[in-house]
């Protein structure tokens, strides 16, 4: 009888425990190919960082987590699943983020931006490309031409502003066509369109793959842009500790990438098929964008601009308040638990720094707009040089040993934008010094001012070999 009572008690205890146990879903939407979002998705998932930070005490003591990851190629379908309560968290840019908020509001719900992942106060990251053999070298040359862009994307907003700044009417002076990145790339190769505008990483990826040339960077429009992460506000309020855990995982992902950008550029490449060289263009030192989680005034303004522009386009018929769509108290807590100072970072605007010596001469690299990087095939780390002349001389010597060069990075002399060297324009002065430029017109103006000339990447080898000795 005693044994039977003990068994009954044990069964009741187990049954009570099972009844009290709870399974909590953590469903996260990512955009893996939007590579500047990697620290808020791909890297967390691949390294299982979320599992490291999810709470298991207090009200979460008996919880089982159902972690769901789903990848998307753009923001709108991700938004559809968030609104349908199939996802709790998702990452996207400012423009689709505004549409996300509008869709939630129409459904009687609310979403909030909980962090920035990567962005540019100047607007870099979005860009405009033309076919590699196009005679067009600037935005002005596209009057009367066909330009495709993913409508409703952050690149769409960039393009509209850039055209207006150039004095072009987007409705009369050009023919705008809505095309996803994959379609735009094919259309460029078949010359069915004259130009294509897009978000990260396609304005760099298409040129890297050899069938396009970048003629305009979003930084030239000088309008902030960012990618960040939104959460269902009701979910975040119910499970704030889970949201903070996600953000702590993102912070660790950022630390890992900062410490070894080559390694994680390769991981992104393995997962997405986007070449590591392009990933490094964003995630390496002095990258095209800054991985910065804080909601700087420029990013708040970017969200307001996105809301206003989408309203003008007829894509948003609800009233949205940009500041009300941002809730940074989860992020502040994650910073605190990670030993970081949120307010200090909020005031910091520097990109991930390049602190290095010239790999050939040993001299300290001081002028970052002349810094040049070379990634040699078979080497785990990128080599750094103080100038294009020093780097190109080194490239000659490296190739003599039979090694191949994966990529060379230079910086626009005016803006500091990181560029693929083989697609940049170079102004050479009479002393043999060369400076890189995104725009051909800018390179020609610089060359004229010193009695120099404009040279291509390939033609610099002969002159730099002598100048660097």
Number of strands: 17
- CATH superfamily placement of the largest domain: Periplasmic binding protein-like II
CATH class of the largest domain: Alpha Beta
Which strand-content bin applies to the residues? Answer: 15-25%
Please, what is the average pLDDT? 92
Helix percent band? 25-40%
Please identify, by name, the CATH architecture of the largest domain.
Answer: 3-Layer(aba) Sandwich
Task: Outline the low-pLDDT stretches.
Answer: 12-19, 465-469
**CATH level-3 fold name of the largest domain:** D-Maltodextrin-Binding Protein, domain 2
Counting helices, strands and paired strands, the structural category is alpha+beta
Shape: globular
Report on the structure:
The chain has 469 residues and is of the alpha+beta class. The chain has 3 domains: 225 residues, D-Maltodextrin-Binding Protein, domain 2 (3-Layer(aba) Sandwich), CATH 3.40.190.10; 95 residues, 3-Layer(aba) Sandwich (D-Maltodextrin-Binding Protein, domain 2), CATH 3.40.190; 96 residues, no CATH class. The chain is 40% helix and 20% strand. The chain contains 18 helices and 17 strands. The chain has a 5-stranded mixed sheet, with helices on both faces. Helix 4 packs parallel to helix 5 and helix 16 crosses helix 18. The longest helix has 20 residues. The radius of gyration is 25 Å and the shape is globular. It starts with a helix and ends with a helix. 50% of the residues are buried. The C terminus is likely disordered.
